Backbone:
């Protein structure tokens, strides 16, 4: 990719990260004042991304969908543009919970398609990325596990209340409202940590293996897991998915996470 | 010492009798003074609640407190003794202690396990204590009763589940929402039961909304709970905001249908909602309970919850009776030991005096003794006395509280001339 084009893309990714922050805060607190700023940054990011794409087209002389990284950038830009249009037309603020993180991650991936600065190549830096990635993932999984337990307890409690028969075992479970809050908190916390873990992991992989990393099936599984997690968070926040649907979703994400984990058993051997 | 409890409760006397016998707070102090002034009575306690009036007294051995207390009741409450006698029960000694424990532990209450009675008993004790009417036996037994009540409550959890429709509704609301603070409750229609449930919820921090076909009634209800009035024809549009709906209107048809509720739950973004339909005929289409995140309970559902809780309480009450039997045995043992203790002490003192007197009398004949000889003399005399006293003392301990025990104690006191 052309040097200037990469620079614009990096700045765009930086701006999009504000959008990610807004999405996280929105999930945490439901109401945030950051949205206007995040939307501004997001718009600016989209414009810079457009500049990057146009520049790349001008330099290379062909449409920049040559490889995965270029298409990721294009896809991110199109998603951003579509969201801005929908927002301008319908003011669908809640959609940003889904779009902001997605666009950020796609852009990050496309940024990582270009070689990282050579100063990042030291063994210490690489290890730091890896340690950060593993720690964040583990915390994220713990939060996800708690969420899943709470979701199952919610199902049992709900069934008992629906059947209208007091039951000595389910009676001891916390109240439905308490479980619901636990699910919300656990899910958000898990999402924050796993998102950060994906960022750290992708950065580490790109330093470690240049552009080869994206083709690995195991990486694809992790990114897909993150994508499903994002969908879950979005449905929860925008449509208020609770009860059975929420439980099934959490268990799906947990299953995908377990799969990702299994695929990662020998991470260091991944690129050797 | 003799313990007697005389009284009546919801099982033995109708309310017309109970209300005439009840002591109000202002007359209690004077009544306690009158009671303990009766000849032969050592201590007295008056427990007066809406379900029971009981007088507990302790009397010296040999006194007959029964007629005294009945006389006191008749005189103090200004009624004929013959008129109240058929409603009164009388428990003595062991049975009286058991009765007191059962009352304190709320096993004798109309609603078994209700928590108020312990507080009422404590208040009665405080009133008696203030008049100096309890100071010995009765106080010990009351203290034990408070302990027993606490043990029963914590070990059986007898008071935990709701046993009225109103409190069952509140309990369910808690199971659904966790905290009720800031939850929005709408009361649709009027009625004693919805009022009661709303009062419970209001006390737990919920905010009340009121709607009624008749504006005046809505206003009266709203004033009662510092609630907000919602116009009757607007209630559906407010419903998505409402967490708990108590419906008790007199409408002969469903005011809330399934399709309407579906929209409401969608507008609430699936946040759970609790519908309480205590109207007959019902106000809310029962099919609504099929919608996810909606919990609809009608009057029969609530009644069933109550019944199952009552069953549970019955089981726990059996467990409580066992605890009480255990505590009763322990208390009796302690009281009995207390009863023979003075006799044992005076027996030992009496024998020691005899020993010292005899040594003093023979001192001149013995002449100067070496310290070793002095020690031997002490050991021999003490040894003899201890052996002599061992029989009577262990017999006293064994006989404490047994039927006929008093007779043995009496005999020993006489044989050893312990009463001077």
Residues:
């Amino acid at each position: 990719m052309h040097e200037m084009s990469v620079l614009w893309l990096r700045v765009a990714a930086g701006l999009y990260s504000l959008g990610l922050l807004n999405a996280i805060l929105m999930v945490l607190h439901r109401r945030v004042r950051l949205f206007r700023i995040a939307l501004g940054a997001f718009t600016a990011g989209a414009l810079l991304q457009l500049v990057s794409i146009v520049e790349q087209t001008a330099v290379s002389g062909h449409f920049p969908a040559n490889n995965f990284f270029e298409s990721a950038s294009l896809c991110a830009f199109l998603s951003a543009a579509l969201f801005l249009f929908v927002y301008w037309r319908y003011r669908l603020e809640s959609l940003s919970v889904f779009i902001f993180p997605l666009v950020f991650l796609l852009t990050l991936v496309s940024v990582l398609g270009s070689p990282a600065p050579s100063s990042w190549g030291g063994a210490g830096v690489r290890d730091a990325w890896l340690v950060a990635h593993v720690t964040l993932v583990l915390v994220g999984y713990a939060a996800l596990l708690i969420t899943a337990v709470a979701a199952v307890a919610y199902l049992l409690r709900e069934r008992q209340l629906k059947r209208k028969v007091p039951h000595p075992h389910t009676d001891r479970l916390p109240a439905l409202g308490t479980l619901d809050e636990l699910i919300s908190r656990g899910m958000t916390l898990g999402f924050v940590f796993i998102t950060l873990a994906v960022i750290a992991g992708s950065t580490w992989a790109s330093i470690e293996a240049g552009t080869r990393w994206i083709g690995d099936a195991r990486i694809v599984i992790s990114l897909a897991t993150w994508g499903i997690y994002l969908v879950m968070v979005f449905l929860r926040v925008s449509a208020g998915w609770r009860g059975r649907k929420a439980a099934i979703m959490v268990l799906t994400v947990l299953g995908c996470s377990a799969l990702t984990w299994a695929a990662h058993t020998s991470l260091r051997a991944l690129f050797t | 010492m003799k313990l007697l409890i005389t009284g009546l409760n919801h099982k033995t006397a109708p309310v017309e009798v109970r209300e005439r016998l009840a002591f109000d707070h202002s007359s209690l102090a004077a009544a306690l003074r009158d009671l303990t002034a009766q000849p032969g009575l050592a201590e007295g306690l008056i427990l007066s609640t809406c379900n029971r009036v009981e007088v507990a007294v302790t009397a010296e051995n040999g006194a007959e407190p029964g007629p005294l207390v009945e006389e006191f009741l008749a005189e103090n409450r200004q009624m004929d003794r013959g008129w109240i006698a058929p409603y009164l029960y009388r428990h003595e000694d062991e049975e009286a202690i058991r009765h007191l424990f059962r009352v304190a532990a709320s096993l004798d209450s109309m609603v078994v396990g209700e928590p108020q009675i312990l507080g009422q008993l404590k208040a009665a004790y405080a009133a008696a204590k203030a008049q100096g009417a309890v100071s010995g036996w009765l106080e010990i037994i009351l203290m034990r009763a408070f302990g027993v009540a606490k043990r029963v409550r914590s070990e059986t959890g007898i008071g935990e589940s709701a046993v009225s429709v109103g409190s069952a509704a509140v309990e369910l609301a808690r199971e659904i929402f966790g905290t009720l603070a800031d939850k929005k409750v709408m009361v649709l229609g009027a009625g004693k039961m919805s009022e009661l449930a709303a009062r419970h919820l209001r006390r737990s921090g919920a905010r009340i909304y009121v709607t009624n076909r008749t504006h005046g009634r809505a206003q009266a209800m709203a004033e009662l709970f510092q609630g907000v009035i919602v116009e009757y024809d607007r209630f559906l549009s407010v419903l998505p905001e409402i967490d708990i709906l108590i419906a008790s209107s007199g409408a002969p048809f469903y005011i809330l249908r399934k399709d309407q509720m579906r929209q409401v739950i969608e507008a609430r973004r699936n946040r759970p909602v609790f519908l309480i339909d205590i109207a007959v005929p019902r106000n809310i289409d029962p099919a609504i309970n099929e919608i996810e995140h909606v919990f609809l309970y009608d009057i029969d559902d609530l009644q069933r919850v109550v019944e199952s809780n009552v069953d549970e309480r019955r089981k726990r009450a059996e467990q409580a009776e066992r605890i009480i039997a255990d505590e009763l045995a322990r208390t009796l043992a302690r009281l009995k030991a207390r009863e023979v203790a003075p006799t044992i002490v005076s027996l030992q003192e009496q024998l020691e005096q005899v020993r010292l007197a005899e040594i003093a009398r023979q001192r001149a004949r013995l002449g100067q003794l070496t310290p070793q000889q002095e020690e031997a003399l002490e050991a021999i005399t003490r040894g003899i006395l201890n052996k002599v006293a061992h029989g009577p003392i262990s017999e006293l301990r064994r006989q404490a509280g047994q039927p006929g025990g008093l007779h043995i104690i009496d005999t020993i006191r006489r044989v050893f001339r312990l009463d001077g």
About this structure: The longest helix of chain A spans residues 123-163.
